[in-house]
Design a protein that fits this description.
By secondary structure, this protein is an alpha/beta fold. The chain has one domain: Aldolase class I (TIM Barrel), CATH 3.20.20.70. It contains twelve helices and eight strands. Strands 1-2-3-4-5-6-7-8 form an eight-stranded parallel beta barrel, surrounded by six helices. The model has no long low-confidence stretch (mean pLDDT 96).
């Protein structure tokens, strides 16, 4: 039985003071048992949030990392740096990283392996553009992204990875994939994992849906077959809204 996993991706929002205020309010709310929760905050907030969330059961995620251990990469952050301050998860390959910062299937694969090696659990994002969906190529495209991200990743390692299906056309647009569309694509991802690693890994893997998830649609999405969680953007910025999603 897979444990539901709801992660809030704050993107480039909140100062450290605002982040700590959110964490204090959110951690004090009644939260359902049996749901894993993580906050993915900007780098500058991670160390302070780690202390603030201590004992709450809420996990901490970074939004990105570099695939090299160290080096002359101005402005970048390594997995070892994140691990040192106690980061639990890292979002890898978000469509905004792919679109604006040149992320490729190859760099996503390198980051996935580097995160696993450092003891950080990847939240690996895949998803198609509107053009690819309208051309009828979404299934092939997303399956190829999954295969590329997991190249040379062992079955034992793959079982530790969360896959987040985020259709690009539904991110920050207010447009959401229908539960049927989302469930179908998450089912395809699970089938791809089955082909790569067998039924055991496929059935263990948590697959999130992301793309304009909000309190009004979270329950229906979360009760759709093959969807085990959500990667939440804008609706994770307000404690009450995010908790409504966690309580789906």
């Amino acid at each position: 039985m897979r444990t539901p996993f709801i992660a809030g991706n704050w993107k480039m929002y909140k100062t450290t003071a605002q982040a700590l205020e959110f964490a204090g309010r959110f951690a004090a709310m009644d939260r359902p048992a049996g749901v894993n929760v993580a906050l993915a905050a900007p780098f500058t907030q991670l160390a302070a949030l780690k202390k603030k969330l201590e004992g709450s059961g809420i996990k901490l995620a970074a939004q990105n990392m570099h695939y090299e251990e160290e080096g002359a990469f101005t402005g970048e952050i390594s997995a070892a740096m994140l691990r040192e301050i106690g980061v639990d998860y890292c979002i890898i390959g978000h469509s905004e990283r792919r679109q604006y910062f040149g992320e490729t299937d190859d760099t996503v694969n390198q980051k996935v392996k580097k995160a696993l090696g450092a003891g950080i659990l990847p939240i690996c994002c895949v998803g198609e553009s509107l053009e690819i969906r309208e051309a009828g190529e979404a299934a092939e495209y997303v399956s190829s992204q999954v295969r590329a991200a997991l190249k040379d990743v062992s079955a034992g390692e793959a079982a530790q990875i969360t896959i987040a299906y985020e259709p690009i056309w539904a991110i920050g647009t207010g447009r959401t994939a229908t539960p049927g569309q989302a469930g179908e694509m998450c089912g395809l991802i699970r089938e791809t994992l089955k082909e790569l690693y067998g039924t055991d890994v496929s059935e263990k893997t948590v697959i999130q849906y992301g793309g304009s998830v909000k309190p009004s649609n979270a329950s229906e999405l979360m009760h759709t077959e093959h969807i085990d969680g959500a990667l939440v953007g804008g609706a994770s910025l307000v404690p009450e809204d995010f908790m409504d999603i966690v309580r789906f």
